[in-house]
Amino acid sequence: MILFWAASALLAAVALLLVMRPLLRRRAAAQVSRRALNLAVYRDQLRELEADLRAGTLAQADYERARRELEARLLEDVENQAGETEPHHGGRATMILAGVSIPVLALAVYLVVGNPGAIDPQVAHGITARQVEAMVERLATRLKDNPDDAEGWKLLGRSYVVLGRFQEAAQAYAKAAARAPRDAQLLADFADALGMAQGQRLAGDPEKLIARALEIDPGNLKALALAGAAAFERKDFKAAAAYWERMLPLVAADSEDARAIRSNVQEARSLASSTKALKGTISLASKLRQKASPDDAVFIFARAAEGPPMPLAVLRRQVRDLPVAFSLDDSMAMAPGLKLSGFPRVVVGARISRSGSATPQPGDLHGTSAPVANDATGVAVVIDSVR
Questions:
Q1: How far apart, in whole angstroms, are the C-alpha atoms of residue 111 and residue 326?
Q2: How distant, in Å, are the alpha carbons of 28, 136, 270, 310 from that of 379?
Q3: For residues 312 and 303, is the Cβ–Cβ distance under 8 A?
Q4: Rounded CA gap, 252 and 277, in Å?
Q5: Which CATH class is domain 2-274?
Q6: 241-277: pLDDT as tens digits
Q7: Which range, of 152-166, 190-204, 289-303, 369-383, averages the lowest pLDDT?
Q8: Residue 314 and residue 236: Cα distance in Å, rounded?
């Protein structure tokens, strides 16, 4: 059991790092501290150990040893990151090595039939990437014969994430979530993988999963980090700051993690106070739902109520995201000198394009608002007409 927990903790930590880095890569996107997210993973693993101890499925001695292993690993991570100044460049070789070795450990433990404690730690040494892929496929095959194994589906999802196979990871997590719908960490992992699978975007289903995770566990660090990232993605900086601020009581007040989170909160608040945006929601009329495919492009735009016909700001989504909240601002300008802030009254429109073309075509579905102020909120647009 000790190796199982240690391997699971390492797998979760590395999977989290690999997936979160692209989503929160830039400082402008308020990158949440890697150590803060690692700490969340370790805390989750510790909670599981404590639950097993209370349930009597784990001996006190085994619990103590497993906890020491987790603490040692956390200390090692902190020490390794202490000298990093460029998180995008440092530790790349270690990340690659871990990405190969950790799935081997976790999968090897899981695939030892009926006896996770029987695995020899040396089995992982010398195993090739091809063998890792084979072990993942072996687990996938095993789950076909045992589809109700929620833990197996979770492990398969994590393994696919480490291998960069995000679409398959999302499918595995979906099966796990169907069998463990109240597992907040699972829902956060599912949202993360699904966001990566749909082009590193959290809008739509990923954001709904994040909301469910926070309903179940309002203190889930990964769900809070993702919720903040999703809000930042749609330029709702005030909401992003609020989500990230909720992370602060969950980490040590004088830690580097807390300082990094406070910096992110401050940046989001600064952007919220300095950026004027036009906000609202776009929905599709029920009478037209059969005329649109989930993958069709949705173009959301604002144009001057009195002025040039060229859009002043444009945002692209998909039908699957509807209904969707939008936020338009000057950063989305189509041409220099034609900015949303330069026209006091604007019209908001939304158009569904089956071809994906930004140019209106016959058969497109569309809807528009009445003229509104360029910083109005609560603007509701219904796509209810056919071009």
A1: 46
A2: 27, 48, 24, 20
A3: yes
A4: 35
A5: mainly alpha
A6: 999 999 999 988 888 888 888 988 988 888 777 667 8
A7: 152-166
A8: 16
